[in-house]
Amino acid sequence: MPPRLSRIIAFLCLMAGSCPASEPLSLNFNLYMEGKYVYERNCIVCHGQRGDGAGEMSLQLLPKPRSFREGMFKFRTTPAGMLPTEADLARTIRGGLSGTGMGMFTHLPDDEVRAVIEYLKSFSRRWRKAENYAEPMQLPEPPAWLKETKHITAGSSLFQTHCAACHGPKADGKGPAAVALKDIWNLPAHPSDLRQPHLRCGDNPADLYRVLATGLNGTPMVSFETTLTPEQRWDIIAYLMTLKLPDTPHLGAAPASSLLLQKKP
Fold this sequence. Notes:
By secondary structure, the chain is mainly alpha-helical. Residues 16-24 and 250-265 have low confidence and may be disordered. It has 2 domains: 3-137 and 255-259, Cytochrome Bc1 Complex, Chain D, domain 2; 149-241, Cytochrome c-like domain (Cytochrome Bc1 Complex, Chain D, domain 2, Orthogonal Bundle). 37% of the residues lie in helices and 0% in strands. It has helices at 3-18, 29-42, 44-47, 86-95, 110-120, 149-162, 164-167, 205-214, 230-241, 256-259. The chain is globular.
């Protein structure tokens, strides 16, 4: 047996043996190898062979491609610090991230998305530990009163108190604390310009609520789950929705094939 293949099999056996029976992680060799093939065709050029975000195109991209080695994912429905669900990862793969090099991989069939997610788990030990898993949070539907003046006014005041230090008084991402912010990868963590019509978390009020509830793992953006009530979070969102700039073409909407130099089969 080739040494590389034997190491892969040993790795999978280790992962299987280190997880309790109730653990949602369930790797198998065939799915892992299929995911490796999908990753090498679509992801390796940015995220790198080792999943460390150091692919050949990474030097040209800002923000830098995500490193999967730490097992920290920003866009989740799970509580702060927890691993994402497979549905969370699939949403990012399918929808892309606006304003970044992460395009929309809508051309991938469901089985390939499932396989590449399985392969991504092999890059970090966090996927082996049951304590890093959590059920998705129950996120409410947007209330009918989002456009009411009193909630917009309340949201403006809450934003200045809780968000303006980083995102700026005008929500343009230019708060006084912004220049010093870094993420766990020691890269500048630029706060989002929340006026943009397309944000990385998504375009809808529910997407903004999800970030306020869960935070962005690995960044200074904390969860407000215990700091603000659900109504206060919606008030802030009501205010932010009044600041939206006119729609413009954005990187996240482009098909992945136009953004990346994909390897041919």
